[in-house]
Amino acid sequence: MKKDKKNLCDEDLYKPSAPVSTGTIPRHSAQHGKMGYDVHQTENDVVPSAPPLELMDQVTGYETISFDAVNIPPPSSTRKVSTSIDFSARSIRPTQPHVTEKQARDALLAYAKKHCCYGEGVAKNMAVTQLSYSSAFHYELQTFTEKRETSWTYTPYTGLDYDGVDNGVAPLPWDIEATPTKIFQDEIKIMQVPHTASVKACHRCHRIGTVSCSDCKEKGWVRCIHCNGSSYGKDGDGNKERCYYCYSTTHGRGRQDCDKCSATGKVNCPACDGSGQILCFIQLTITWKLNTSEHITERVSLPEKLVRVASGEVAFEEEGPTVSPVVKFPDETINLASAQLLQQHKRAYKDLKLLAQRQQVRIIPVSTIRYDWKSHSGEFFIYGYENKVYAPDYPDKCCCACTLI
Question: In terms of pTM, does the model score above 0.70?
Fold first, then answer.
């Protein structure tokens, strides 16, 4: 519903600002204008960053709202997770590939070739003394949540129609329909709550539309940087002459027109963009977020960061509105980790809406190769289906400049 600018009364213009939660600082001085605000303030001055809350319209269901975004927990009825997401679960018996001695030599040789100062003799001449096989387990839990926050906000009023309180009752935050573009993907959507908009006099310029230019301090000119304000310079022969740069300006005599305000001393108010009025409304911010936790179990000295990115086989996966702890997995640490992480997510996101969960267990094959080379006895690891190598104590190095891969 469109409102006429004439409906704004003078008391709206200069009504004293109550402290707002955004931490604004009123200016007080004998030179200040009505109700303690500087009538010559510039766009860089410390002024109220938002209109006084008491000027905002009373909206049913939003009585305690401020200009700070506040999380609104979902009603108990909406915490019942949706059943629209397909549920799937499958169990797999992964094959456990066994690396042969030849495959171990080839993998170590390829590893050495990637390092400029690694000798290839270890891979070619080592005596393999033991080959052993194990598995690393990577458990991952993902919880997809929705958070809704509300706050007052404002934009410059451009004169267009707006959806005010006269158009109906504003819906509550969780009554507004909104769905993520894609499940299990971070996304933020910002929208205006229907029937909450109103036009107010600008709290910064008091409906004037302009503020003093901060560059020229409302004078309309700045000192000429070429003659340093003297209005004279020197020609190529060193003779004194009128400064070319400020000679033909509006103010002249060592003064240059201020470019920022076009020599007027005034610039558009940054709050209302020169219109003198602002459109206030309640803003709803919806945040969909993928929250991930994980647990890695490995029986050898293989860094977790390598297990995390290594290829493996999915032994178990489950997806649905909610998931239950993993049970009867051969490794008990995975069962315990699943139960603990599910409880952590339940506590951590109790004030959010749970849209979906999924969990997965991957098995990463790991081979440990013990060997003798010259007088050195060592070991290295081959992991993942790409047969990646981890050899932290490679014995044949000619310098220390190489980075282990």
Answer: yes
Model pLDDT, residue 2:
44
Q: If 0-12 CB within 10 Å is exposed, 13-18 middle and 19+ buried, where does residue 317 land?
A: middle
Rounded Cα gap, residues 230 and 240, in angstroms: 11
- Amino acid in the structure at residue 314: V
Cβ neighbours of residue 155 closer than 8 Å, sequence gap 6 or more: 278, 279
SS3 helix, strand, coil % of the chain, rounded to 5? 15, 30, 50
In the three-class reduction of DSSP (H, G, I as helix; E, B as strand; rest coil), residue 336 is classed as helix
Mean pLDDT by 10 residues, the chain (405 residues): 40 35 31 41 66 88 92 74 40 63 93 87 92 94 97 94 93 96 96 96 92 90 83 72 75 82 91 94 98 94 93 91 90 94 96 95 94 93 94 80 49
Task: Identify the pLDDT of residue 23.
Answer: 33
Return d(Cα 174, Cα 286) in angstroms, integer. 10
At 129, list the tokens: 């003394």
153 vs 203: CA distance, rounded Å: 13
Query: Taking a C-beta distance cutoff of 8 angstroms, is the pair 16, 36 a contact?
Result: yes
Two tokens, residue 358: 């999924």
> Under a CB-based contact definition with an 8 Å cutoff, are residues 256 and 221 in contact?
yes
Rg (CA), the chain: 35
> CA triplet 325, 354, 144: central angle to 5 degrees?
85
| Separation between Cα atoms, residue 352 and residue 143, nearest integer Å | 11
- Look at residue 202 and give its three-state secondary structure: coil
Q: Are 184 and 144 in contact (CB under 8 A)?
A: yes
Amino acid, single-letter form, for residue 261: C
Residues 6+ apart with CB under 8 A from 162: 1, 2, 3, 197, 198, 199, 279, 281
Query: Which SS3 state, helix, strand or coil, does residue 98 take?
Result: coil
Nearest Cα residue to 206 out of 267, 272, 266, 159: 272
Quick one: which H or E segment has residue 373? strand 353-373
Helix, strand, or coil (residue 140): strand
Neighbours of 396 (CB within 10 A): 17
